[in-house]
C-alpha cells in the first residue's frame, strides 16, 4: 500500500511538474500580454520533435539544451510576425489567432513526422530504476523532476535578478508606466513570449523521453494548465506553481482509490476554488476581473 | 436641510494617504466646486462619494441615509449620478441610444423585453427632455464616438441627467476642452443649476468656470481640507493664495 | 474605451433591412437553387444549425462584449439532451428539443453564476475549462452517452401537427423547412430581445461597463442573464444538430468547436445581427470543401482563423454595413 501511494505521489509530482512548466509559460504570456496562448501545447510538441531531429547529431544532452532554445526562437518569430499585431485590438482576436496557430502547428507536425507515435530514446544512465523496491522510479523520472525544479528556479531567478526579468514583472503590474520609462514594451513582450515557449519546449523534450512523440502530445496538458492557473490565482506565478502541483498530485492520488475519477478531480478542485475562493489560492483581490 | 454630508472621510492606498479627514456639507440646490492642485485627492474624494470605492474611515450621508458602503447601483437608485474626468459614454451607439439607455434604466425598465405604449411614451419624453436640456436634439441620430469632444461631454451629462439625479457629480467637466467648448459646457451647467435647481458638486481646474458658477468652493491640498467658503472668501484667503492660486499659471 | 476615433464610412453600404430580406430570400429557396450550384440540402441544414449556434453565441460576444470560448459545451449538451430524450424518454421531436434546451440552458445558468465577475481573457479561460467538464463527462460516462463513440440508436420522429404529420424523419426537404421554422422563431426572439430595453443594457455593458454601472444597471446580473439565454439558444442549435445527424458526438462538446463557433461569428461580422449566420455559411461550406480535398484540412482551417484575424477582423457584414449596424 505504501508503495502504491509512493508510486502515485511520484507520478503526480511528475505530471504536476509538466503542468507547472506549461502553466508558468502560459501565465507569463497572459500576465504581460493579456493573451491566452492556445498554441502552447503545440510549442510543447515542437520542442519534442526538434529534440527528436537533433538527437542523432548532438545526442540527448545536446538536444535537451538546444531544442527549448529553438522553440523559443520559433515563439519569438511567431510573436513578432503575428501576435503582436493584435495586442491593441479586442482580446477575442488574439485568442482566435493562437487558436488557428494551434491547428496549423499540429497539422504541420502531422505532415512532417506522421500521425503515429514516434519513440525517443534516452541515455541508458537515465533509463535504469533507482532500486529494486522503488522499481517505478526510474532515473529518468528523478531526472525530469530535477530538470523542472532547476528550470522553475531559473525562471524565478531570471524574473528577480535580470534586467529583462524585472521589467517583465513591472510590466505585468503596470505596462503603461514601464512604457513611459522608455522601455521597449514590444520587444519585452516578444522576449516574454519566447521565455514562455522555452518552458513549453523544455516540457516537450522531457515528455518525449517519457511517453514518446505524437502531433497532439501537448493537447492533454493544455486544459490542466489552464486549470492550474485558475486554481493558483490569475496574476500570481507562485500560485500557478502551487496550482499545477496540487492538481497533479490530487489527480494521481485519486487514481489509488477511484482510477476513473482521476481527471474529474481536477475539475472538482477548480469548481471548489471558484466557489469558495474566486480569486484562486494566491490571486490578488483586484486580479479577479 | 442637507443633501450631502461627508464626515471626516479618509482613504488610504497601502501606506499612501490619498484623502485625510475631509468633511463637506452640501445644501439642496447648491453648486459646490472642489478645487486643488494635481494630486490633492479630489478624484479620490469624488470616488468615495459616488461609490467607486468605500472610504477607509469616515462616513457619508446622502439625503439622510448613510451610504458609506452602499454599492453603486443603490446610490444611483437613490438619485446620484456622475460623469468622469475622461468622458465615459457608449461610443458606438447614437446620442439617442445613449440617452435612451439611461432613461429606461431610470424608469426601472432595464429588464423588460417589451415596452407597452405608455412606457414607450414615457421613454420618448425622457429622451426628449434630456436632449433638449443639453442642446443635443439635432444630433440624436449621430454616433457619439464621432462627435466633438464638447458634444461627447454634453452627451455624457445628458445621459447622467436621464436619472433625474438629486445630486449630480461632475468630474472636471471642461477637461481638455477649447475656449468655445468650455464656454458651452459651463453654460449648460449654469442652466442646470439656475433653471432646474440641480444640486451639483464638481471638480474643476478652470478658475473662471469655478468662480463664475460656484455657490461655495472647497479647496483640497495634499489630501486635506485647506479652506471652504464662497468664491469671494476663497479668493481673499491667504492660505489658498499661497498654496494654490499663487502657483497657478 | 471612451472617445474613439472616427472610422471612415464604408464604400459600399448595406442596410440592415436589406440584409434581412436577402438572407430570408436565400434561406427560403435553398432546395431550389442549392443543387444548381453543386450543394446538397444537408449542407444547408448544417449551415442553419451552426448559424443559429453562432448567432446565439454572438448575443454574448457581439452584443454583450463578453468572450466565451466554451460554447461548444452548451451546443453539445443540447445535442445529448435531445438524443437521450429520443432514445430513453419518448419518440418525440419537440420533447427532444425541449430536453436539449433545458440541459444546456441549465448548465449555462449554473456555470454563469461562477464567471460573471470575470472579464476579458479570464472570462474566456474559465468558460473553456467549464466546457471541458461537459466534454469530459460525455466521454467518460460510457453507459449513458456511448463514451468516445458518441450517442447512437435514436432517430428524429415525425412531427404531428394534429391535422397532418410532417415526415421530417425521411424527407430531407421537409426537415430543412422544419429547421428553418425553428431557426426563424429562435432568431426572431433573439432579434426582439436585442431591440428591447434589456437588449440595450447589454449593448451598454459592451460599450462601456463603467458608464452602464453608473446608470444603475446591475452589470453582473445582466451578464449572467445574457450568458444563460445565449447558452439556452446554443443548446437549441445543438439539439437540432442531434436531430440532423441522428447522432451526438463528444467532439460536439470539445473546445475546438467552441473556437469554430467564435470564428464563425467574427468572420461574418460580430457587430451585425446576421453576421454569424453568414460566417457559419462560409465556414461550413469551405470546411466541407477542404476536407473533401485534402487530409491536411486542419492547416487550412487554422489558416482561415489567422487570415480573418489579421486581415478581415470586422468580418464580411461588418465591412459591408459599416458602423452602428445593430
Structure report:
Chain C: It is a multi-pass membrane protein. The complex is a heterotrimer of chains A (289), B (249) and C (326). Chain A is mainly α and 289 residues long. Helices cover 75% and strands 0% of the residues of chain A. Chain A is globular. The mean pLDDT of chain A is 89. Chain B folds into two domains: 1-79 and 166-249, P-loop containing nucleotide triphosphate hydrolases (Rossmann fold, 3-Layer(aba) Sandwich); 89-164, no CATH class. In chain B, helix 5 (149-161) packs parallel to helix 6 (179-194). Chain C has a domain at 39-254. Chain C has 15 helices and two strands. Chain C has helices at 16-28, 30-33, 41-64, 71-89, 93-115, 120-140, 142-145, 172-194, 197-207, 209-213, 219-245, 255-268, 275-293, 297-311, 315-321, and strands at 159-160, 165-166. In chain C, strands 1-2 form a two-stranded antiparallel ribbon. The two termini of chain C are 19 Å apart. The model of chain C is unreliable at 1-12 (pLDDT under 50). Chains in contact: A-C, B-C. Chain B binds chain C through residues 50, 72-73, 76-77, 81-82, 84, 86-94, 97, 100-102, 104-106, 109-115, 143, 145-146, 149, 152, 156, 159-160, 162-163, and chain C through 1-6, 192-193, 196-201, 203-204, 207-208, 210-218, 222, 225, 271, 323-324.
What is the topological layout?
The complex is a heterotrimer of chains A (about 290), B (about 250) and C (about 325).
Chain A: H1 2-33, H2 40-81, H3 91-113, H4 124-127, H5 139-161, H6 163-173, H7 175-180, H8 185-211, H9 219-232, H10 237-257, H11 264-276
Chain B: E1 4-13, E2 16-26, E3 31-35, H1 42-50, E4 57-62, E5 65-66, H2 72-78, E6 80-82, H3 95-106, H4 117-133, H5 149-161, E7 167-171, H6 179-194, E8 200-203, H7 207-213, E9 216-221, E10 224-229, H8 231-236, H9 238-243
Parallel strand pairs in B: 3-8, 3-9, 6-7, 7-8
Antiparallel strand pairs in B: 1-2, 1-4, 4-5, 9-10
Helix pairs in contact in B: 3-4, 3-5, 5-6
Chain C: H1 16-28, H2 30-33, H3 41-64, H4 71-89, H5 93-115, H6 120-140, H7 142-145, E1 159-160, E2 165-166, H8 172-194, H9 197-207, H10 209-213, H11 219-245, H12 255-268, H13 275-293, H14 297-311, H15 315-321
Antiparallel strand pairs in C: 1-2
